[in-house]
Model the fold of this input.
Amino acid sequence: MPTIKKVWKFIGSMRFAIALLALLAAACSLGSLVTQGQSYAWYAERYSERTAALILALRLDDAFHSWWFMLINAFLCVNLLLCNVTKLPQLARRTRAAASAEEALRAPGDACAETVAEPGAAFRQLRMPAPRAGETPEGRKYLFSSKNRAGLWGAWVCHLGILLLIAGFALGQMTQKQYTVYGVPGQAQMIGDTGYALVIDDFRVDTREDGSVEQYTTGFTLQSTRSVGPSGKSAVVSVNNPAALYGMKFYQNSTGWAASVSVYENGEPLQEEILCAGEYLRVADKQDLAICLNALYPDYVQEAGSMPATASDQPVNPAYLYSVYYQERIIGMNVLTGDDVVTIDEYTVAFSDPQRYTLIQIKRDRFTGLALAGGLLTMLGLLLALYLQPVRVWAVQDGEGAWTLFGASRKGGVLFREEFARAADAAGKPAEGENSGASD
Done:
């Protein structure tokens, strides 16, 4: 049992906390230095096969989701929790003592002024709450007042906030889900397993005077597939201006080109779909036959011996790079321009209406609120610790009716004693002496 107590005491100690923070800093540095999310081949090409194997074995390719990074965070949370739990009774006693006249009367105080004519003026000068009167066991009258006791809780609240912040971040990283939705205005796309569909209402590309892109903006409506009847919330998202709905965060990620693909059978319309570059469609009554839109060049140019390219982002001379598959095997590939079409037996395929599609990245983190609460508590703790100065002031009357004024503050030092001296002057007698003793 003594050994277990020693282990828990060490886990909750400041020395262990400093070691964990050093490890956390080193882990974050490693995660920043090593490019995240790449393959073994990518690391082997840039470093060496042995280094690549080591990176993957230590999960340095995904450091912030690795078991060891989460373990460091877990130990840090336990350390902060133990620190707060063990200090809670002592802090509660200290808070009660700060409001106790009996405790103050037993202490020498940080500053003292004798033969004060009007102690009430000193309390007012120090902006103390109205003092309460009482008598000591010896029958002497006293006045006592205290303020800003909440300042004693600053460090404790700050520790609690950091605990919630770390826990919220770690749990969020462990459980976070990401989705990608793309399409053109008018299309609706399911967002993974969330039970919501994203309807793209509008997509706008703003350009500068020189023709360069200034901003991408998407307006969308989020609809629940589980509710009956019309429902949904709308939002607008642009680059560096995300939106939040139903516990999800939406980011404008990128854009690309899409086109309408029309399929005719023996000259009669068979089907029509909008394909984004990289997508394909299967012919309705011949599923083994598939048409893929590999790329779209809005302002097509091609020089002899070079790859297709685009001269601008304006759809002034669109061209469509396509490929045809039959039973999963490619049977044709080419670039269509103008009114060109593809003929495959009785089927004719035509591309038209080039337009931009929008790509939205969606993140769902169920612990964002916990991390936010931790951040707010941390700020509150800092405000309590830095701006609330716990102060106690009391005055004791001797047998001849003269008052002696005392003051104590856990913070402030010389500044508090200077303020106390001015209060003593206001009470009708300058400070004649100082005692440097513990306040509580």
In short: Residues 430-440 have pLDDT under 50 and may be disordered. The longest strand covers residues 248-265. Residues 258-357 form one domain. The first helix runs from residue 2 to 11.
